[in-house]
Every structure is written in structure tokens, then in C-alpha cells.
Amino acid sequence: MPEGSGALAPARSDFVAEALNGLTAPRKSLPPKFFYDDAGCTLFGAITELPEYYPTRTELGILRDIAGDLAALVPPGAALVEYGASDEAKAAILFAALDVDAYVPIDIAHQALTALKSRLRWSHRAVALHPIAADFLAPVKLPAAIGAMPKLGFFPGSTIGNLDPPDAIAFLRQVRTTLGVCASLLIGVDLEKSPDILVPAYDDAAGVTAAFNLNMLTRLNREADADFDLDLFAHRAVWNDTAKRIEMHLESLVAQSVRVAGRTIRFRAGETIHTENSYKFSIERFAGLATRAGWHVARSWTDAERLFSVHLLS
Ligand code: AVJ
């Protein structure tokens, strides 16, 4: 999302404050939501097409395979509330299989939502559209028009894996409060597997994920008055077996100082900025997390190779 564009973008001062907060911490980090400016959204779209990045195509395959099961489990006339709806490809599978009367795509990328709205206006006229440009991690007020409809939450992509477990539980609890206790939630969850598969999925041979990660520094240079030299930072993706997560970092290749919004940020050679976690689960570990958030796992599905999973929570 091109932050700074439109009233809904966080004010520059919020963006700069969050950036400085992360970069002045003892262990430097930046929030993964910073990835998604226009260039970042385009790069993420390219990532989903990469041979090494299996999650998107695997989840789409599962959704197509379970569409018939879902039709028997979701009440007619439902409102589909999608968290992190950068494109409608996955929701369109649900529109085709379920009797959905309304669609509430929630995404921080204002530009992506506008494009999605114009695409959907022609392809799914029967579905009432209520896009919400917001950071879905914050509490969301649903439109009054869907108040009486059965709610199906949708949180694909294993974006739940971007959250540390306590935050994931808090988010799932918040979704239950927003949608109501009679709602269901369809959620995509990436499964733990060999680092031989996981690491290349986040460090592809073509360097697209490296460009996606480094683009965060380009965004800081543009929007936080910074002077990062991208040639002095390197993309790193590592498997943390203790935490069961892929970590993405930007490593400073030399000892250096960088100006950010008038402040001097010092880096030791080898010091990193931690930019993202992608937690990976077993079916059982995810069920435990969902249960701690007050949900019941009604159904779980995986692909034949058990790379990815989709769960219907109620
Ligand atoms: C969009 C957060 C699900 O964690 O796999 C892709 C983002 N990061 N490649 C993920 C991402 C590096 C993706 N999510």
C-alpha cells in the first residue's frame, strides 16, 4: 500500500515512529506490514508464482477440493469477512461454492482494495461489497448491512504465522468478538516441514524474496528520510527450529551508520534487522492455539503431500 496516500494511510509520523522504535531497540526489527507498499505488493505477487513458494498454489488447490464440503458446513446467505484480502482469487472459490450475499475484504493496501472492488463489481454482481482499508490486526467495525447475516471469517495464506503465538491467540480472540460467537472462521495454516523446503521458499534462487525484503529499506529511504545503502545489506532467511519459524532478516555487511528521520542508527558488521517471522505448525499445535483463543476446530484439511492445511473453526 502506498502509505501517505489517502486518509486511511497511517500518518507519516506513525510510520516513522514505528520505524525508529524498531531500529533503536537492542535487537533491531521492523514490522512485516511495512513490506506492503506498491512495490512490495507487486513483489509479493511475484513471490506467489515462484516454484519454491508452494503456500499459495497449495492453499488454492485445497480450497477447490473442499468447496463441496464447505457448502454443507456454511449457512446460506453468509457474509464473507476476509482478513488481509490483497486479491480475490481465493474468495472467488468460496463465492462459487457457497451462497455468499456479502463480501467484506479487509486490507491495509488501500490501492489493492480499490482494484479488487472494480474487478469484483463486474464478476460477482450478486455479492454486496463492503471493502475496509485498515490494518486487520486492529479491531474492525463491521458494516451494519451485514449485521443479521451468518458470518464466515476467512484468513488465508498462513498470515497467522506472521504473529508470535500470544499475538496470534489475541488476534483469533478478537476475530471471534468481531464476527460473533455463532460465526465460523476458515483459516490457512502452513505446516512444519524440512528446512530444505522451507528455506528456499523464503530465499528463492531468482532473488525475488530478497528484493521483497530489501524493498523495506527503499521504503524507509523514501518515507522516513533515510539513507540506507542497499548494497551494504543482505537478505537472510533462516529456520529457527526452537521457535518453529522461518525468520527473515536484513544483515548489515559492514559496520555502518545510517540516518533515519534525523537520527543516526549504528550497525555492527553482521548485525541484522529482523523483518518477519513465518511460524509453521503441526495440525495438533494449531488446534491447541485455536482452542486457547476460544475456537473449536470443526474440520481440518491438508493437501496430499501435507505441505499446507485449511481449518474451519466454529
Ligand atoms: C503473506 C505473510 C503469508 O509469511 O509466507 C512470503 C509473506 N514473506 N515470502 C508468508 C512472505 C516472504 C507470507 N504471508
TrEMBL record:
InterPro entries per record: EgtD, EgtD_Methyltrsf_superfamily, MeTrfase_dom, MeTrfase_EgtD-like, SAM-dependent_MTases_sf
Domain Histidine-specific methyltransferase SAM-dependent span(s) in chain numbering: 17-313
NCBIfam families on file: egtD_ergothio (TIGR03438)
GO terms classed as biological process: methylation
PANTHER family: ERGOTHIONEINE BIOSYNTHESIS PROTEIN 1 (PTHR43397:SF1)
Organism: Acidiphilium iwatense
Enzyme class of the recorded protein, top EC level: transferase
Record EC number: 2.1.1.44
Key word Phosphoprotein present: no
Protein name: L-histidine N(Alpha)-methyltransferase
Gene it is expressed from: egtD
Protein keywords: Methyltransferase, Transferase
GO molecular function, one term: L-histidine N(alpha)-methyltransferase activity
Superkingdom field: Bacteria
